[in-house]
Fold:
Amino acid sequence: MTRPVGYYVHHQGAGHWQRAVALGHALRALGRPCTLIGTFAGIDTAAAPGPVLDLPDDRLADTFDGRDGAAGRPDAFHYAPLNHPGIRARMGRIAAWAVENDPALMIVDVSCEVALFARLLSVPSLVVRLSGSRTDTPHLEAFRAASRLLAPFPASLDGGDVPEWVRDKTDFAGFLGAEAAPSQPEDGRVVVVFGRGGEGGAFPRLAEAATRVPDREWHVLGPVTGAGTAPSNLHCHGWVGDVRPHLAAAALVIGGAGDGLVTAVAAQGKRFLCLPEARAYGEQEAKAEGLARLGAALVHPGWPEVEAWPSLVARGLALDPARIRALVEPDALARTAASIEALCRG
Structure:
């Protein structure tokens, strides 16, 4: 019997789930069973490539930021609160699954603690290395414990402060699941996208932006707070499960530097005004800097002042969309799955 892969999925961010599903299906196509492991409350798991191991939540509160703030926490951990029954049950279920299934590999996307736990369980691991400055002790120890590292972005977007041994241990997967979409006619619209992980959009500021650029229809996807009278060219669609059909007609896309949106924009070859949001370790800022360096996006730190919108939209529309489309590797998913299969066999 072929030994399975366990894929631990972090409970924050749609990009983690989408990446896990895409890689899981690619691995199953190679004959390698894949079990998704994580806290999946509020997620439709119907797209999972196989079994799902749902874990108790490990968060202290809804505003959890990944750190427990304990002064006595060991240096190798970001998050290790005491007297938390959810964490005990969580780790117990992971251990029981590993004992029962004898996995060939644990993919960890992402958690320094689970990466170290996999090593303690004597399970080889492939640890996902995200963008940003991740040279703190917990990250470096997780990277050291891993058999290999996986960066879900092209090597050309990697930052400059990565230790050489970390880079040497990294396989660059490109934008996983991004298949270059055929070009479709654009109707000149501006599409603004807000994801689950950020603050969402503020209606008054969106109304100001649309008013300042009245010759464009503005379509807003994702959560928006506040109310008021909308200009006739502003259309708020609320939460949308798949933004890709909405991007097809866009002349310009505006949004953060989250994995899901950047992948979708690159796949469709769209001009991109990137407004990186604050994230731990400067994850979005680092990715945005890489896109700007390659001429693949126009980057502005934070939401622009109202008077800046006409110029920013004009500069965004002047971008060459071929720059960002060139970052898409058609074989990225198959190539990455093949390298994971080789790691399982190795």
The mean pLDDT is 93. The radius of gyration is 21 Å. Residues 85-101 form the longest helix (17 residues).
